[in-house]
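ok here's the first one, seq then struct tokens
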Amino acid sequence: MLRTIALAVSLVAASATARATPPVVDVELILAVDVSWSMDLDEQRLQRQGYVDAIRHPDVIAAIRKGDWGRIAVTYVEWAGVGLERTLVPWTIIEDDASANAFANQLEEAPIGRMRRTSISSILIHSATLFDNGIDSFRRVVDVSGDGPNNMGTLVTDARDLVLRQGITINGLPIMIKTNRSAGYFHLESLDKYYEDCVIGGFGAFMITVNDKKRLQEAIRRKLILEIAAIQPRVIPAGYASRSDPHVIPAGYSSHSDRPRVDCAVGEKQWNRWRRLDRW
């Protein structure tokens, strides 16, 4: 009788321990996607489809399977101004075709949001809280895409440093498709330098620049593979690549100084100047 009771207790304890053990993945990845008004609807649709297709792509699934655990955790969040963050697909463990398709289908069916202003700092701070998710991993990565600088909220460098101190890596996808003429007042020609010097950082951080709408989906797929596989990206010197090629740039690669090459508060200054002009 006592043996039976002891066995039952041990089985219950083992079951409780199993339930309490968090799932372990190779990387927890937040896809933080800009849906501010500076991006037109066609660009937003192209961007969304790029993520849908990338998650389903055989090369991405193969990269997942090659990991130590053979699975990753991903969530998809749209963002714009301060406090304007919307989770479209909650944390999902992807380990095979079925789980990848389930994630992609949910993302594909969700409506595309459009919201005002651009607060990279707000999405970075918000993203850091999302890692309290009951999942364990070797790496935690926030992948930020956008077509403009921070223009409201906490200074982007302060938010970046806060996130980096938590051991989180920030990667970037600066979208530089528009020309000066088509982009409007808030266009920043040096957005790639801004992202490299003011936004990305942490272990293995990198960004991929996109200058051609036709290459956006390719860039998204390539970026996901690099993030999942934790591969140090190979840099192609500018003279050996066409302008339309998505350029992979590791954090700190282009700058040999501790001082940013661009004003990290340029977006806030653009906005303040615009407001003064608007009053006239």
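and now the second one, same deal
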Amino acid sequence: DGSTGWCINQNNVHSTNSLRMTLETAQEIYADDRAVVTNGPPDSTVRAVPCDGGYRLTGRWNFSSGISHATWVAGRAPIVGPGDAPAPGFGREGHRIMLMPRNEVDFVDFWPVQGLRGTASFSFEVDDHFVPENRTYDPAGPMREDGPVYGIPTTLLFASGFSTVALGIAKASLGTAMKLAESKVPGRASRLLRDESTTQRIIGEAEAVWHSAKAFLREAHASVWDSAVSKTPLTTEQRVKLRLAATFGIQKAKEVVETAYTLCGSSAILDTNPIQRQFQDIHVVSQHIQGRSTHFETAGQFFMGMEPEGNF
């Protein structure tokens, strides 16, 4: 299920930030075996004003995947002074992550989407809410440990994870199409869809696309993982290749799902057909920042000997 995979990846990657928190705060949150920390990008209303012992936080955060199961929420916020002027000396770009128990924020039921509906990526908001200093951290601050997973940039953890989700959706869509082909006789046809040579060719080509995308992602990730295990700094080439493989995986997964959807014919439009959800899900994943085609430009710049731009 795409929504389940999405939420698991979101929470798994975000949990690596526990090593940027104080040890006491991390223990407070993760002592609960069912701990889930959700987060979402801030909108333009978000402000954190320093005060005695912490911050007064106001604003709204959207796209908070899995918030229905969250025990804590994390909100990124710019630290501002008088007149909303950026306050100096507060981490990367003057931002900090604010941690709050789920019951301290207002839940906003807003997720009117077709794909990945099961992620329940609703919004949350607070108004002049006090957040103690020890429940905040610098998103680019040092980590307390140096295990392999913590040596991989967070953006690449998200990229490879969401690409894996996309490839999972794509594989499921092929299964849906092949199962339908075993029993469907298309209109004005005389034999099962599975017995048509065109169907066999389409499935073969789609499997080739899927396996090539998966292999590229595994190869790029294995290289990065080996360096992380040996504590060898990642090269620009490794980072760019993993970024490229992740985005390629998402885009090729979309291509595979569209192929499967088309193969299902008019049966694909029914809500009762799993391909409908798979089609909607992949078109949400591919719209995410990790699937942007501009990442191909970053890779192209690198391979052409230019200084690559972008997030990798």
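notes on #2: The chain has a mean pLDDT of 93. Strands lie at 37-40, 47-51, 54-64, 72-78, 95-101, 106-108, 122-132, 136-137.
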